[in-house]
Amino acid sequence: MYLRATVLCENSVFGNQGAFAEHGWSVWLETPDKRFLFDTGPGNTLLNNASQFDIPLRDADGILISHHHHDHTGGLLSALRAIRRGPDQPPVPVYAHPDIFKDSFYDRKGNLSFVGLPQKRQVLELAGAEFRLDSEWREIDSGIYMTGEVPRSTDYEFGDQNIMHYGESGEITVDPVRDDQTVVIDTPAGLVVVLGCSHAGLINILNYVCEKTGRTRIHSLFGGTHLGPVGEDQVEKTITALHEFNIDRIGVSHCTGQKVGSRMAHEFGDRFFFCSVGTVVEV
Ligand SMILES: [Fe+2]
Ligand SMILES: [Fe+2]
User: How far apart are CA 135 and CA 209, in angstroms?
Assistant: First the structure.
């Protein structure tokens, strides 16, 4: 085995008694010599589910964060406390984009709710976080990459128009979530592409991953696609474009939503899977 990925937090749970679901995303990534927690969910299910699946959070070599939204970062404090059990322990590297601390909001018919990282930086650092912030593509460990900001190369991936932030002149405006990034693991069987929320656009992400790695064979693509909250035109064009990539297995979760997830299940047949809590992807 080269890689085992276990879904710890997701919007659904199936056939795993004792595990809980909540709107969010977190995956435990194990290679023969490294262990990383990718995203932390909103914070209510991470520790319970890790314990249910015998995931040794304390052995993590670091935490990778896809973007600043609370459904991916809310469990960061409890994850840090689980990994670093006392002040005498070494700090925990947290790999993220500098925008992880920004304020942002979700607009529900004019009502704005805060969707940023719930804890202050200082609180997280006191709990042992050592933030390693970068907006560029980088290699976290041998063969394990974070994309950094993804260039928006398509002309149809407009994203979720209800996610807001403070624009340059201080006004509330649509947030392109530039910090959205994806984890890529280069394995002998092909790339494993683990999405966070895909605010950057699924096809933009795949174009960039293939460009940066020089590889086109994708063993597995899974995670949040954010196709649930976007326009029908984007969904249509993204699914059509997905067929042009060389992908063995496609798993969707979280912000894909049930409607688009069902459609993709129909579209990709045996290559498709749902990434509910407890799903394991092995390479
Ligand atoms: Fe998000
Ligand atoms: Fe999300």
Answer: 15
Q: Are 224 and 198 in contact (CB under 8 A)?
A: yes
Q: What is the pLDDT of residues 220-258, one digit of tens each?
A: 999 999 999 999 999 999 999 999 999 999 999 999 999
Query: From ligand 2's centre to the CA of 115, what distance in Å?
Result: 10
Residue 86 CA, ligand 1 centroid: distance in Å: 31
What total number of domains does the chain contain? Answer: 1
Q: Is pTM beyond 0.85 here? A: yes
Which ligand lies nearest the alpha carbon of 117? Answer: 1
**The predicted structure's pLDDT at residue 252:** 97
| Residue 84, both tokens | 């670093």
**What is the residue range of 181's domain?**
4-282
Closest ligand to residue 175's CA:
1
Which ligand minimizes its atom distance to the CA of 180? 1
Residue 69's CATH number:
3.60.15.10
How many angstroms is it from 259 CA to the middle of ligand 2? 16
43 conformational bin, left if phi > 0, alpha if psi -120 to 50, beta if neither: left
Instruction: Measure 219 CA to ligand 1 centroid, in angstroms.
Output: 24
Helices 202-213, 232-242: axis angle to 10 degrees equals 30
